[in-house]
Amino acid sequence: GIRHKLPFITIFTPDGIVNSEGAQFEGMMRYDARVAVEEALKEVGLLKDKYPKPMKLGFCSRSGDVIEPMIMPQWFVDCDNMAKRAMDAVKDGELRILPEMHVSTWNHWLSNSRPWCVSRQLWWGHRIPAYFACTKAEEGVIDQNANEHKNRWIVARSEPVARTKAAALLGVPESEVVLNQDEDVLDTWFSSGLFPFSVMGWPDQTADLSGFFPTSLLETGLDILFFWVARMVMMSLQLTDKLPFKDVYLHAMVRDKEGRKMSKSLGNVIDPLEVIHGCTLDTLYAKLQSGNLASKEVAKAEAAFKADFEADGGIPACGADALRIGLLAYTVQGRDINLDIKRVVGYRSFCNKLWQGTRFLLGCFGEFMPTDVMRSTILDVASTRDRFILSKLNTCIRETTQCLTEYEFGKSVQVLQSFFVGTLCDVYLELIKPVVHNKDDAVGANQAKATLWLCLDSFLKLLHPICPFVTEELWQRLPGRGSLAGEAESIMIAGWPIADPAWDNTAAEDSTALVLDCIGAARSLRHENKLKDKVPADFFIACSSQDSTDSITAQIADFTTLSTAKTVTMLVAPAEPPMKCSLKIVTDSVKVYVNCAGMVDKSSEIAKCNKEIKMLTPLIKKLEAKMANPKYLETAPPATVDKDRSKLREYTGKKEEAEKTLKSLQ
To answer: Where is the Aminoacyl-tRNA synthetase class Ia domain (predicted)?
Structure first.
């Protein structure tokens, strides 16, 4: 046990003071002293009653001892003025806190600031530079904790400075001064608050201090916004009259998929290395057993691991890129990331698609080699499809740059994913497939390859901060790597893409969008009329506006390619499509027809549709009757009811599709 000095005890009675010394309790263990005090009260007849009183007790997690407060003199820092300056810096726009929703938390903490207790009774840390001064004659006699001697505490940078001040205060030679430095150390957050400038040599005006302080960005977690961030701002303003940084980005907190904080005591901690390299289920179980979790918590954690990872035999190896992009994609939700490893596995699929898709695109280049003037001449013979993708690339560059500048990482993932999958691969790649392999049009093929090269080069650079490893590997594989003037050796030091205003082309985007809508209509007509995808069909496109006619005519080859058309006829009023054509309306001014004559066995398809409708109708009626019966809904197992509802939706959808096809055939 530890012997604590108890303060002198004074007992007051109506007749006066009974005991103001309390010397008989000095040096006792605190538990023994409590019994002794009780006996002393009994002796003087002042013990009124004794009864149990429930209370909350704190216990040390390591030793199991009861934790009890003991009143001691402490050192405090007055924060009123510093807190006001920190709030004003945000209010005036000199300091940005992002996301902005955390500004209210910042103002709440600082507007209710109190004197900051910086004393800590620990063995490690920066010792408080406060010295109690006395003369040699007073040593061991004078009480340094007494209020009447508060003025003898001297705060100084070093002991010699404190000794000089003490000699002047006491009016004695420095040789007669005895200094006793406070044994407490500074609060960790006090020392951490000095970090931005103290590590640069402050208070000396060093080259590092002038070169690296203040900095531009602090990235940290919301949970230490007040404890650390506010203290750095306050102390930098107070001691250097400068803000330590311009932006504070508060990243999301990573929790488990149920929203609980990851904690060793819950057994739900996921090591990032286990996600990157993979981890077997047995290894996860062994990690739980090797800790100090209670058996109940071990069983609960094992059940959670089994439910999540048993199907895959553990955590699948996802790689660093998938983990990075997965975590960043989560940040669109708000302050917390409820991490589901299955979602990270989903982004591993995106990285695989990026790898496979880019390698396929690389196969389109053949003997193509980029040139130094390629970028400046790319529009010279560009087709509408080329102008379309370059304009979309410009948009992607601007939006990604803005997202990263504003720390909207989740949105940047969406922008990049949408461009690569939805625009570059699903649209442009499909449009240029017949072009890049067309030996009869070398100019068009070379133009498409040059455009594709510029798109891939810029896209990989945009994605590199998020997925550094796969982008470096793919960027190095682009044709002509190392042959261009002033080219960087690595993507990580290559110039950031900059949008070229000359590439902006709203007309090409609108025109291509219309053509894509027409292609979508043609594919729907094929599906509705049971036309095989690989069998060419005759299409007719009727336009009532000249702009639509011009747009589609300019890209008639693209429509032909993606709709698998044998012929495409532009209809000009009053021309009409032939009989037995199926119609799909694209816009108010554009209609797409497909000639079904000879493409389908009409009587056979009609009979097939009628047969399916006849089979489905009684099944639907039976299920509808079940769903309309309250008794069935109340007594049947929920799983059975859900299964019947699912069947009803399925049968109804099939019947509607058959009726739609029948109507089209008729």
So the answer is: 65-340
